[in-house]
Design a protein that fits this description.
Blueprint (H helix, E strand, L loop, with lengths): L10 E8 L2 E12 L3 E10 L2 E10 L3 E6 L5 H8 L18
Antiparallel strand pairs: 1-2, 1-5, 2-3, 3-4
Length: 97
């Protein structure tokens, strides 16, 4: 029985255990096999669409929370290029040797 099937297609934040370390992961819940879940993240790199998927076995999952949807004001700020915490943008590319 798939435990997290109600969250399929939704953005979730997962806390999981890797050895003795607890790690967070955020992505879209792409699949639930009944033994593990698959998170997916889509992004642009070098003007190409990329998809990254990773598998988290049930026995390593500590917590799964649905991430609230972004509000319209947040979406308009990000679309207008407003500063976002944790994002660094370079106006001019650094020169390389």
């Amino acid at each position: 029985m798939a435990r997290y099937s109600a969250l399929l297609g939704k953005r979730v934040e997962v806390t999981f255990r890797a050895g003795d370390i607890y790690l967070p992961a955020t992505g879209t819940l792409a699949a639930d096999s009944g033994r593990s879940i698959f998170l997916e993240e889509r992004f642009q790199q070098n003007e190409r669409a990329r998809t990254f998927r990773w598998e988290l076995p049930y026995h390593s999952i500590l917590r799964v929370n649905e991430v609230p949807a972004r509000s319209d004001t947040q979406a308009s700020h990000s679309a207008s290029g407003a500063h976002q915490p944790g994002i660094v943008s370079f106006r001019k590319r650094p020169e390389t040797a």
